[in-house]
Amino acid sequence: MSLDQTLERFTLRIAVDSDKEDIRRWRNQPHVRASMIHQDEISPETHAEWWDRARSDPTRRLFILEQGHIPVAVLTFFDITPDGTAWWGFYLTDRIAPGEDELAIWMNVEAIALRYAFEHLHLERLLCDTKAGNHSVLMLHERLGFETVSPENYPKAQAHDLVIKEMTARSFSSVKARVMSPEVLEMALPDDPHPFRLPRLALIGAANWDEIAADLSRSIAAHCPLRLKAIVPPFGQGMLDLLTPGSDLAVNPPDYLVFCDRAEDFLPPLAPATETQIDGMESRFAAYLDNIRHLRGTMSGHFIVHDLHLVRPQMQSLHDMTARQGALSAAIDRMNRNLAETCAALADCTLLPVSRVIEQIGHDAADPGKYWLMGRFPYGPRFTHAYHHLLTGALMALHGLTARALVLDLDNTLWGGVIGDDGTFGIQLGSDYPGNQFTTFQHFVKSLSGRGLVLTLCSKNTEDIALAAFRDHPDMILREDDLLAHRINWSPKSANIAEIAAEIDLGPGSLMFIDDNPMEREEVRQNLPGVIVPEMPADVAEWPRFLASHPALCALQLLDQDRDRAAKYRIRQQILQVEQSAPDKQSFLRKLGMKIEIATMRDSTRARAMQLFAKTNQFNTTTIRYSEQELDTVMAENGDILTVRIEDRFGSNEVIAVLVVTYGATAPDTARIENFVMSCRVLGRGVETAVLADICRRAKAHGCATLLGPIIDTERNQPCRDVYERHDFIAQPDGVFARALDNPIAFPDWFAYISDV
């Protein structure tokens, strides 16, 4: 079927108020209602409420497809998210002429919808749900390139027998070339009625950063779901614009400010650094730090500040170069120390080690040479790619999008050869080449475990034969005790990785899959979207270097909770064993010997609180990602930022939850839990009951009569959706739950307080 059939008569327009009653009639067509979850006839009142919401909702788009001037289909996009995900659907109207080819209309609607989704809404992922018995629509989706996804994370699909299908921006590119005719591709489409404001990242520096910013957004999107717009103020004007009241940057501050002045930018251009010039350099640098401090007090957004590393050629003695005793090197060291102290003292401020990029690509490659003379470019051409990786990693870490577990292949990944053919002692592993490159890689992987990454295995092998290498081979660096979970069988790796994710209670986006086989990597990419799948270099010897700079392995700061993560997962497994042997839930909980501390956030727990807000997706009631400035504001306005620490007889001792509670913000006698975030490792232990009981006590002490708790449903936060209903909160409009404090929640007797803070 051609997608351009009668296309010259098709137009797409935004639905307007005059369409309201027609759309109600079309929604009530028997064949349309039969395809919906709720099949009752839609009353005028219900439709009017839906219409008002749909027209004003910035996450929804509603269109009419006309053939000539006759409306033939209604097309809708909904639940559009900032990370580029949306759902869509369509239905035909009752105005289609008898004998008209409805299949042709269907196919044109779908083709036009795909173009709009990926070219106008700039989505990364488009989803739809269809009743399992609606075979014609399912076939149409498949013909246009949609692929079926597991319903596991979609309770609605399981409850109502729906098939979930998706298309990604990546697959749209091939579908567009393969299926769509020139007429479809040339068809004019309306502008987005609610254009999404992409977060802005501004590069502020004295050099010309335009070329480096040009592909930055695309580079970030290639590694994670973050979408942003990189901007560069006019040459050399960035800091001045920020400090000038009424300027665009001052009135509309970017979401991220990257201060990227180089050491050279504090020196006179093109001249050798004399002692007098070095004094002037430090003076100008001090003013630069004062500006950053001032802006932090007046502007929102996250600050990212480059460290300093000189790349301009300078004549120094061998002694000065080796001992860093030369005046210029010593001055830059002092400046970097001041920079680190300043960034540590400022809220929402990250120091970015650009010096690492310079070391990575080499001093000579970083030197812009003639490119500085021609266009004031800050660094050489090789700098851009490595810098994009570094900045992307910092942004991923800030948003909790980095990997928390490695899923490792075995054959030709952890060792050379195929163990099923070569045997335990025939695989390549040891101190001589080529086995030593795999030994080196295992050392690297083990070091990642020490940084908090959980190690798991996924291999197509016979399990006993594969595990024998971990037990018996003398040159194995990794041992079975290093591995939290494994799947060694002949099933598709995507299915095995999904099982591993469920077993260790992490989402696919927290897993990095490492496999030498490009076919296996692609199978996982296609069938388990979200898993981080690096395209590994062909040379195994390059793997440690490649992964060391991979954005998904970046960490802002290593906390004790990170280093002990594998141990904490093992404690969780022990607790599950106790639960299985206990006669009842109460007995199980008392056997854990749990103690709890619910305390105001302190300097010692601030980093962990920020990490929980950034990384927790499943038990996260509103998914608000707070900045340090926002938390400070809550506390300044008499709200509470509370961290929750638990201990148990198995050795647990960690902060596992954080809450934001306000008092009197919505009504004088009302407290509100703005967000409740908790590690899923402690689900099932009644921690939320103890926390809510404590919040009731605090709210009453503030003179409140009612406690509110909002829930904002997301694709991933199913574990917390019923937390308030389970504790007898009453549902209110707009996803808010309320509980009267004249009957507060009882504190569970299987907990003891560590302290009352």
TrEMBL record:
SUPFAM superfamilies: Acyl-CoA N-acyltransferases (Nat), HAD-like. Residues 10-168 form the N-acetyltransferase domain. InterPro entries: Acyl_CoA_acyltransferase (IPR016181), FkbH_domain (IPR010037), GNAT_dom (IPR000182), HAD-like_sf (IPR036412), HAD_sf (IPR023214), HAD_SF_ppase_IIIC (IPR010033), SGNH_hydro_sf (IPR036514). GO terms for molecular function: acyltransferase activity, transferring groups other than amino-acyl groups; hydrolase activity, acting on ester bonds. This is N-acetyltransferase domain-containing protein.
